[in-house]
Amino acid sequence: IDERNWQDENDFATAYVNWGGYAYDNDTYGLDMRDTFKHVLSGVSVAVKNQDNREHDIFDSDDYLQYHGGMIASIRALSGKQPRQFFGDNADPQRVKVRDLKDEARRVFRGRVVNPKWIESIQRHGYKGGLELAATVDYLFGYDATSDVVADWMYEQVTEKYLLDETMREFLEQSNPWARHGMADRLLEAIDREMWANPSEEMKQQLTQILLDSEAVLEERGEE
What is the pLDDT of residue 56? Predict the structure, then answer.
């Protein structure tokens, strides 16, 4: 995903199996079991990721999309079927909850990603705050690429909150223009790959202009 050289879930499956298809026990260290791993994955019908804390969420780290998203994409590629996908929340052992992954994506999106309080607080962290915003967009994109969990309205809202808002524009241009450039570029990639299926022409043009403007800013600084 980072290299942008993937075409479909078959590429994700290849990477997932190549990195994860090795067995370990008391006598064996890294035995190549990729064929067995592919066979097992092809028979999986439910992909679950459990989390036992609230320190992170699914759009707060690429670990989630690499492990869970990669599993979902690999199962789809190897079996030809989309598995059911769930997120298990046992941060409170007394109130364990299991949610459909799309429901969890919407919950995290509304609760943090576009939450005005979080957005306001992140701006107090300068360069690092901008980096966190850009990372969130990357993780949204990555989970959607592997698992199809981000709806068009979510792409629209993150564009409005992170890139079209005037206060955010001033913050990013001052603190982290690289983040602004990266977010516009990633959102345009979502459009090009038709993951963001029906963007308005106006919003697409705005993103393109933001990308061009941010490239000019970085070029002026000699840091493109």
Answer: 87
Pairing outcome for strands 22-24 and 29-32: antiparallel
Structure tokens given for 211: 């990308």
Q: Tens of pLDDT along 42-92? A: 999 999 999 998 888 999 999 999 999 999 999 999 999 999 999 999 989
Angle ∠(29,34,40) on CA atoms, nearest 5:
115
Q: Which residues contact 147 (CB under 8 A, 6 or more apart)?
A: 65, 68, 69, 72, 73, 85, 101
49 forms bridges with which residues in the sheet?
87
CB-based contacts of 26, cutoff 8 Å, min separation 6: none
pTM over 0.85, yes/no:
yes
C-alpha 12/C-alpha 188 separation (Å) is 21
Residue 117, Cβ density class (10 Å: 0-12 exposed, 13-18 middle, ≥19 buried): exposed
Contacts of 120 (CB under 8 A, 6+ apart): none
pLDDT tens figures, 147-178: 999 999 999 999 999 999 999 999 999 999 99
What are residue 51's DSSP bridge partners? 89
| Strand, coil or helix: 25 | coil
